[in-house]
Amino acid sequence: MSGIRLHAHSTETSSALGASYTMGDITVAAGKEEFDGGASITLVTAGMNFSNGWVALAWGENETAAGVKTDKTALKGGLNLASGTSVYGFASSEKAGDALGVGVSYDLGGGAAFDAGYTKTAADRGILSAGIFFTF
């Protein structure tokens, strides 16, 4: 069916089901993976592309084999500012605390891009990163 994607897998240690549906510039998706011993991961997302950017909302839950659940919610987005230059950012919240991040990407051509960003983690640590990324 047009716009629907399904995923299923089973290994010696886990099994998972997932699905996504795209309608125009909007995509929604959900998936769950269960591990031997009782642990599981659940993820639900919704995202939208618009003229010069995108925005997405995600919620996930990690449940340990002992039944301890941890939720995390994140809002992400990005804008294409000029030819080859984009900025992006996120904000997330979980029991451990809130995290924020911003970044910039510049297309160098030939499959290379310069990316740099800053993240404040839920543990209140600042991380600065930069590098050249290649796609082949």
Helix/strand layout:
Elements: E1 4-10, E2 14-23, E3 26-35, E4 40-50, E5 53-63, E6 69-82, E7 85-94, E8 97-109, E9 112-120, E10 126-134
Antiparallel strand pairs: 1-2, 2-3, 3-4, 4-5, 5-6, 6-7, 7-8, 8-9, 9-10
How would you portray this structure in words?
The protein is globular. It has one domain: Porin. The chain has a ten-stranded antiparallel β-sheet with strand order 1-2-3-4-5-6-7-8-9-10, with no helix packed on it. The mean pLDDT is 95. β3 (26-35) and β4 form a beta hairpin. The chain is an all-beta fold and 136 residues long. It is built from no helices and ten strands.
How many individual domains?
1
Helix content: under 10%
Beta content: over 45%
Put simply, the count of helices is 0
For the record, the CATH architecture stands as Beta Barrel
Spatially, the strands of the biggest sheet line up as 1-2-3-4-5-6-7-8-9-10
Shape: globular
Helix and strand sequence? EEEEEEEEEE
Please tell me the overall pLDDT.
Answer: 95
- CATH fold naming: Porin
User: What is the CATH class?
Assistant: Mainly Beta
**What structural category arises from helix and sheet content?**
mainly beta
Low-confidence stretches: none
CATH superfamily: Porin
Biggest sheet, open or closed, and with what strands and sense?
Answer: 10 strands, antiparallel
